[in-house]
Amino acid sequence: MTAIAPSKRRRPEIFGVQSASARRRATLAAVSLATVLAIWMGLTEFGIVNTVLVPSPGDVFRAALAAIRDGSLLRNALASLLRVLEGFTLALVIAVPLGVLMGVSGNARGLVEPLIELLRPIPPIAFIPLAILWFGIGEFSKVLIIAYGAFFPIFVNTMAGFRDVDRVHIRAAQALGANRFDIFRDVALPSAFPQIVTGARLGMGLAFIVLVAAELVAASEGLGYLINDARFSFRTDQIFVGMITIGLLGLVLNKALLEAERRLLRWKSQ
Amino acid sequence: MRLSAAAVSIRIADTEVRYGDHLALARVDLEVHAGEFVCLLGPSGCGKTTLLNAVAGFVEPSAGSIEVNGIEVHGPAPERGVVFQEYALFPWLTVERNIQYGPKLRGVRGAELKAISDKYCALVGLRGSAHRFPNQLSGGMRQRVAIARALANRPEILLMDEPFGALDAMTRQTLQEELLKIWDLERLTFVFVTHSIAEAVFLADRIVVMTAHPGTVKRVIANTAGRPRSRTSEEHFEMYRQIDSLFQEEARRALVAAAQP
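The joint structure predicted for all components is written out below.
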């Protein structure tokens, strides 16, 4: 027989490649991080780059330890986290009901959609100057801008979720005796729920981006403040600490939301 | 067969359905008796699903009327259970909760609710899958759940829109046999849409042969094959031939009509 036996190691699919095992992924992640770290070290150790502009990993590590010891890292991180959560929650309580209303009512959609389409291309960061003039540089204007940033993904996904409810599910419920309210509660809401959760996750990501921008402009604490303040004293090591912390915090939040999504939507898995 | 003397369950009188300008179903008259198994048979575009949807109350006829037990149909109601080709199970509910949904809407709770879902899970042979989600089931199992869900709501009529259309031939045959058993047990009126002559001959008491452009009832044929049904009996083949020749004739007519300027 000259038939070609399928190879054990190589998969025939080119695009639908199955994800690697957890152990393999962990190894690959370690390799990639170690490589970056090694290049970074090499560049700073051998004087290829100016260490005032690019601190060595050791410098950054020491700066991190110092910031942890004097409590400034924790204080600033908590301040940022609180803002994000406040802004995100505010966005959630406005965007979800509004999205539901517009997903359910064609008239509401017709009235509000043009406004939304007009506002959506304006990046939240462009609202910072206006927010400062209107509400000052206090907490309120920052939370408001973060909420504005998080609003759109949540709102748009909620609306789409409600608009795309499968007609056959509605009919099935009707034939079983469901009235309009039953259908809303038992069919539309669970149908749209996955998209609402996705919207919330995307909203959280945006809230985080907007947060740092808002803190760069005007804040007396927070991670954005931390890195901007370090700039004035030329402490690039502290800037690195702040940025890495922002990255780690965003990573953790996203992972937490993904995990919540997985648990809430257990029925979607095969 | 157990018709003729039985009361009229569904009376379709001079019913027509239009979607805008498109005539989906032209003037149908049909009576279905209580406890009867009727198949609506025809090619796609013949209006069989439209007719079923009109009886279910999903579409409003543009002319004529449909009565169920003497009451005119306006909108869906629990006395008319529906099984859809695409299953239409609620994917966010387990098998058990899907089956419980109709009774729960009626206010059934607790042990009684559990007893209902247990009974219908067992009826369709899914006792071991009560706590699984529809995504975890095969097509055949999903359709069993859909049938159980419709039956658990204690309808008088079960309307089925090509319920086995998406299944493989073997699963399809098994489910046809089980459906006949269920029909025997539950003694409901069944209206079953299909485009398979063999399926209609195997299942139905009467076969409503429909043709397309526009959707019309060509003929209503009483199935002379006895019960229990056999797929290989001479009377089964005889029925098959008779209906097949109707469609051949229709195809020839359509060809001739198409050839005319």
